[in-house]
Design goal:
Structural class: mainly alpha
Number of helices: 10
Distance between the termini: 47 Å
Strand content: under 5%
Number of domains: 1
Helix content: over 70%
Radius of gyration: 16 Å
């Protein structure tokens, strides 16, 4: 059963909610704005209502598979490992969705769902970090990068399990890799500021 659950976690993570919501407004989000299927691009192009729906749906993709695995396996051996693997699978599903030829989003909202389940206090701390960086810089991408980089440290300071810290390092690496274009624009001063929207 655990292997089936991990597969289902990936398949749920791979559902491109941002693309689906944008299509209800007649927009192919992959060909507009930044081309990303995530909540930030949806919100910029189609308004905060659809952006918020995308955020919540992508967050749910990370949280719900882990909740299901914990509930179904309960006290079975290695349950915590399977829970973490379900979160990782959902996260990778968002990044590399089979439905879109493995071309997905950047994973920030799905990672948020994963760690909201595993370590809600760490998410609260990281939310403050994210909001502070975005408020003072105006860049959502910079807030995402800073939060991803600091999450493993926050988890360590809060005494989280090594398994959770390892997952945070894994997630942070992929989020930074997925933001390589944003990093380039930040360095050249060409990144779009949220303050200008």
């Amino acid at each position: 059963m655990p292997y089936l659950l991990i597969t289902l976690a990936y398949l749920l993570g791979a559902v491109p909610f941002g693309l689906l919501f944008a299509k209800t407004a007649g927009v192919d989000i992959r060909r507009a704005g930044s081309g990303n299927i995530g909540a930030t691009n949806v919100s910029r192009l189609l308004g905060r209502k659809l952006g918020t729906l995308t955020l919540l749906a992508d967050l749910g993709k990370g949280l719900l598979p882990m909740l299901a695995v914990r509930w179904l396996l309960q006290e079975a051996p290695l349950t915590e490992l399977w829970v973490v693997l379900a979160g990782a699978a959902a996260f990778l599903g968002h990044l590399f969705p089979i439905y879109l030829k493995f071309k997905g989003g950047k994973g920030v909202a799905t990672a948020l769902g994963v760690f909201l389940f595993l370590a809600p206090w760490a998410v609260l701390v990281c939310a403050v970090i994210f909001a502070t960086v975005v408020f003072f810089s105006g860049y959502v991408s910079l807030g995402s990068l800073a939060t991803a980089a600091l999450l493993p440290l926050v988890l360590w300071l809060l005494g989280a399990a090594n398994l959770h810290i390892g997952l945070a390092l894994f997630v942070a690496l992929f989020i930074w890799l997925r933001h390589y274009e944003n990093i380039g624009r930040l360095l050249t001063g060409q990144e779009k500021s949220w303050k200008n929207n």
